Amino acid sequence: MNYNWNWGVLFEEQYLSWLISGFGWTISVALSAWCIAIVIGSLVGVGKTVPNKIVRGICATYVEIFRNVPLLVQMFIWYFAVPEMLPEDWGHWMKRDLPNPEFVTAVVALGLYTASRIAEQVRAGIETVPPGLSAAATAHGLSTAQTYRYVLLPISFRIIVPPLTSEFLTVFKNSSLALTIGLLELTAQSQQIAEYTFQGFEAFTAATVIYVCIALVATILMQVLEKYTRIPGYVGKEA
Amino acid sequence: MIDIENISKWYGDFQVLTDCTTQVAKGEVVVVCGPSGSGKSTLIKCVNGLEPVQQGRISVDGDDVTAKGANLTALRSRIGMVFQHFELYPHMSVLENLCLAQEKVLKRPRAEAVARAEKLLARVGMADHAAKFPSQLSGGQQQRIAIARSLAMDPIAMLFDEPTSALDPEMIKEVLDVMVELAQEGMTMMVVTHEMGFARKVADRVIFMDNGAIVEDRQTAAFFDNPESERAQDFLSKILDH
């Protein structure tokens, strides 16, 4: 293979600053989307377990819609279709005046999509809690909201930390799809470096290494969280 | 204190309770026994509204449990309940288990709730374990804590749903001792149990259920010495002669 390796290109000021900027956007999109996903995912997940049938139905519909449509299609819908479907003034505002439209759209699309997946994990976590525990809380006079707040959620969130870790890693990887709507995140910047320098191997190796490092840090953070919140002698083995 | 009038309950087409009527007076200890599936656990779960009934009326201390729109949370906080599998909150220390409902339902200040909890833990012999988590304790210890947790709410009556049937034999006594003491202090109690020794010792009355119906409801001595129904005679001969 006739290929001129040149790792130095990654450290030239212009390209290095592209990588750093891409890294910054990837982290920003992923973490912002994660915040949305945790909040909405928890609400929808709880909503799927409450006694009220209408609330359960709405939450189940949310999950089915956002989980079953490909994330890429959702990005396109939010970016290209939604501004056209809104009242004219709002559409104009989204297209002209919304600051960082690619970023905001990517965060919304990724956040709402990830929320549907988190909702399913929250629901599963709540359903794993032995029913006798909520009966005990009810028998002591706790309201439904208090039973969720003090008994069901604290237990179920501990149970779902491991699957949430995978979801947390996925949100960083999925953030790369934002390049399709023009956000210059890590993958987009690597592609751009490859096009400018013809050093595609180096550029995508850099992206790969950065993604792996992000994943490692995220995994370590979640493991610390898991250890810190572990119930002595309950689920899993003692540290 | 507890008035159960003609209640019937169905799960779908299956009738679990058929026209049950009984009363428990203040300070009275009533043991509910019968073969498994006879509806005895369901009956006491109806008393604090954990299970809804389709027919009949239950009132506790004058408050209707079965009325539409009854303020069940307020009512439940006044009735203690102890479960077969303890149901301690696994993510909370023993002390927090006792404080949660005191603080969140009764709105007791923290210091008062802790003081009450510590006093009750000492009473059930668990004062040294306040900082431990439920899964670090034996079944008997957990059940004694569950009893203390209910007592922390200063209940007007206590319901026990097979409190010793998930315990190893040697732990049954430590739980029954606490219950006997409670009965002797005049607590109103409804106890679903197979512990006939306990029934003989402290129960004022014994209710015998079969197939969702109350078959016998009699003074303790009368129930053990000459049960009226064949079904109860058969039941007693099976659990007493071994």
Describe, in plain words, how this protein is organized in 3D.
The complex is a heterodimer of chains A (239) and B (242). Chain A is an all-alpha fold and 239 residues long. Chain A has one domain: MetI-like (MetI-like fold), CATH 1.10.3720. Chain A is built from ten helices and no strands. In chain A, helix 5 (101-128) packs across helix 7. Chain A is flat and about 75 Å long. Chain B has 242 residues and is an alpha/beta fold. Chain B contains nine helices and ten strands. A six-stranded mixed beta sheet of chain B has the order 6-7-8-3-9-10, with helices on both faces. In chain B, strands 2-1-4-5 form a four-stranded antiparallel beta sheet, with helices on one face. In chain B, strand 9 (205-210) and strand 10 form a beta hairpin. Chain A binds chain B through residues 130, 132-133, 135-143, 146, 150-151, 154-155, 158, 231-234, and chain B through 48, 50, 73-79, 81, 83, 85, 87-91, 100-101, 104-106, 132-133, 135-136, 149-150, 153.
Notable traits:
heterodimer, A: 239 residues, mainly alpha, MetI-like fold, B: 242 residues, alpha/beta, six-stranded mixed sheet, 10 strands, globular
Could you give a quick summary of the protein structure above?
The complex is a heterodimer of chains A (239) and B (242). Chain A is mainly alpha-helical.
Set out the fold topology.
The complex is a heterodimer of chains A (239) and B (242).
Chain A: H1 13-47, H2 53-68, H3 71-85, H4 88-97, H5 101-128, H6 131-139, H7 144-159, H8 161-174, H9 186-197, H10 200-229
Helix pairs in contact in A: 1-5, 1-8, 1-9, 2-5, 3-4, 3-5, 5-7, 5-8, 6-7, 8-10, 9-10
Chain B: E1 2-11, E2 14-24, E3 29-33, H1 40-47, E4 55-60, E5 63-64, H2 72-76, E6 79-82, H3 94-104, H4 110-123, H5 139-151, E7 157-161, H6 169-184, E8 188-192, H7 196-202, E9 205-210, E10 213-219, H8 220-225, H9 230-240
Parallel strand pairs in B: 3-8, 3-9, 6-7, 7-8
Antiparallel strand pairs in B: 1-2, 1-4, 4-5, 9-10
Helix pairs in contact in B: 3-4, 3-5, 4-5, 5-6
